[in-house]
Amino acid sequence: MPDFQMRFGEIDANGQPFLSSSRQSIITSLLSAGTFVGALGQAFTSDRFGRRGSILIWSAIFTVGTAIQTATTFSIVQISVGRFIAGLGVGALSAIVPLYNGETAPKALRGTLLVLYQLQIIIGIFLSYLIDLGTHTIDGSASWRIPVGLQMIWGLILLSGIFFLPESPRHLLALGKESQARAVIAQLNSVPENDILVVEAIEELELGIRAENDGGKATWMECFSTRNMLWKRTLNGMMLQFIQQLNGQNFYYYYGDTFFQSSGTQLSPYVIQTILGAVSVAGTVPALYMIESVGRRNSLLWGSVLEGICSLIAGVVGHITLAAPNTPNDQLTARNRSGGSTLIAFAVLHVFSYSMFWGPTPWVYLGESFPLRVRPKGIALGSATNWLWNFLLSFFAPRIAARIGPLILLIFFGMLVFGFGYVWLFIPETKGLSLEEVDEMYRSGVKPWKSSSWRPSEKHMHEQAHEVKEDKHEKE
């Protein structure tokens, strides 16, 4: 936006303000740097202050960071610091909220609700594009202060709304508050407190907490131990988040406006971003059904193929469009328009495919892969990996694109080819399995490409039921 460039940009040879690629990367990437720190930091607050209290703390930090940005006048340092502080809250909440959802959701809805979490994020991005589209023509700083400042409303909604939500029953049990935990589970499932569903849920959580306390407090290094193949689960969770960030979709989110302008399209960059946001929402809706019908593993494999094709075509077409130095101007303009339309078309298909497959699935897989003992730390490591590569992408992508243009999409194509191979070789199917059954599957050494047909042994299920009965008998 012109006022933003005037306040935080540089002056070119013609005396016009502009945002250099280096300043773009600093302003954009510092939020991602904050998210990395916040994703790890929440692991220290979610157990000490509870899931609900932790959400309250990090929501307040996010709101403060947004206020600092909104109050900025001409200082690029202030707006960057504000983005870093806001990023602390975003990163922490990106780990706490799936953790809270996973611990409070009924089992049958766990996968769907974790996809719904991703859908809400995509809807938020789409709303931000609509707001930008509506404010970019306003004269003065209101053009950018309004979309930045409106974020405080969402922070305040979360700050006040969290008081109306219950604490995680798992955290309540860990504090010895069984009666409160029982009431919460009954409330969340709309059944009486003496219902068999509540009884079984309490027994399962007590077993998990007992396992968590067995051997002392869980450490970060335990996530990489050979116990129950935790190192493999942690590595898989981190690798999926790494590959997700280098799918190429965030490049379109962050820099699609300036990128598409260079391809000769006649569409406004604000319109393009709004289109991409709407496509993301439309693509995530089918994932609510497909995550349980198609499964986690197949979703990742299909997504790698579809996104890889889109990035390859968009990268080649974009490069041919812009690399025509000896073409007459009238032909060059026609080629740019045609190439720009093709580039946008495959960018739209790329974002749609991502939203359906690679967008939500790594988060669902991350929430299902760890036993209760190390789950907060395992999710924190996966979330931190996501934000680390988000930071690196947002920092280096504009600099790389400034040098090689659309060929940057071929880097993402290579990552998607790698992602297909990694998923095929190392990612097992976890659809329909309990946390204990995931434990057994990893210990059994089943090949990931055969995991879809794997079933838990009767011996394991018998031992688990016997352990529950024994634990209950000891209490009585």
From TrEMBL:
<feature type="transmembrane region" description="Helical">
    <location>
        <begin position="83"/>
        <end position="101"/>
    </location>
</feature>
<dbReference type="Pfam" id="PF00083">
    <property type="entry name" value="Sugar_tr"/>
</dbReference>
<feature type="region of interest" description="Disordered">
    <location>
        <begin position="448"/>
        <end position="476"/>
    </location>
</feature>
<feature type="transmembrane region" description="Helical">
    <location>
        <begin position="143"/>
        <end position="165"/>
    </location>
</feature>
<keyword id="KW-0472">Membrane</keyword>
<feature type="transmembrane region" description="Helical">
    <location>
        <begin position="267"/>
        <end position="288"/>
    </location>
</feature>
<feature type="transmembrane region" description="Helical">
    <location>
        <begin position="378"/>
        <end position="398"/>
    </location>
</feature>
<dbReference type="GO" id="GO:0005351">
    <property type="term" value="F:carbohydrate:proton symporter activity"/>
</dbReference>
<comment type="similarity">
    <text>Belongs to the major facilitator superfamily. Sugar transporter (TC 2.A.1.1) family.</text>
</comment>
<dbReference type="InterPro" id="IPR020846">
    <property type="entry name" value="MFS_dom"/>
</dbReference>
<protein>
    <recommendedName>
        <fullName>Major facilitator superfamily (MFS) profile domain-containing protein</fullName>
    </recommendedName>
</protein>
<keyword id="KW-0813">Transport</keyword>
<feature type="domain" description="Major facilitator superfamily (MFS) profile">
    <location>
        <begin position="1"/>
        <end position="431"/>
    </location>
</feature>
<feature type="transmembrane region" description="Helical">
    <location>
        <begin position="56"/>
        <end position="77"/>
    </location>
</feature>
<dbReference type="GO" id="GO:0016020">
    <property type="term" value="C:membrane"/>
</dbReference>
<feature type="compositionally biased region" description="Basic and acidic residues">
    <location>
        <begin position="456"/>
        <end position="476"/>
    </location>
</feature>
<dbReference type="InterPro" id="IPR005829">
    <property type="entry name" value="Sugar_transporter_CS"/>
</dbReference>
<keyword id="KW-0812">Transmembrane</keyword>
<dbReference type="InterPro" id="IPR050360">
    <property type="entry name" value="MFS_Sugar_Transporters"/>
</dbReference>
<feature type="transmembrane region" description="Helical">
    <location>
        <begin position="113"/>
        <end position="131"/>
    </location>
</feature>
<dbReference type="InterPro" id="IPR003663">
    <property type="entry name" value="Sugar/inositol_transpt"/>
</dbReference>
<feature type="transmembrane region" description="Helical">
    <location>
        <begin position="404"/>
        <end position="427"/>
    </location>
</feature>
<dbReference type="InterPro" id="IPR036259">
    <property type="entry name" value="MFS_trans_sf"/>
</dbReference>
<dbReference type="InterPro" id="IPR005828">
    <property type="entry name" value="MFS_sugar_transport-like"/>
</dbReference>
<feature type="transmembrane region" description="Helical">
    <location>
        <begin position="300"/>
        <end position="323"/>
    </location>
</feature>
<keyword id="KW-1133">Transmembrane helix</keyword>
<feature type="transmembrane region" description="Helical">
    <location>
        <begin position="343"/>
        <end position="366"/>
    </location>
</feature>
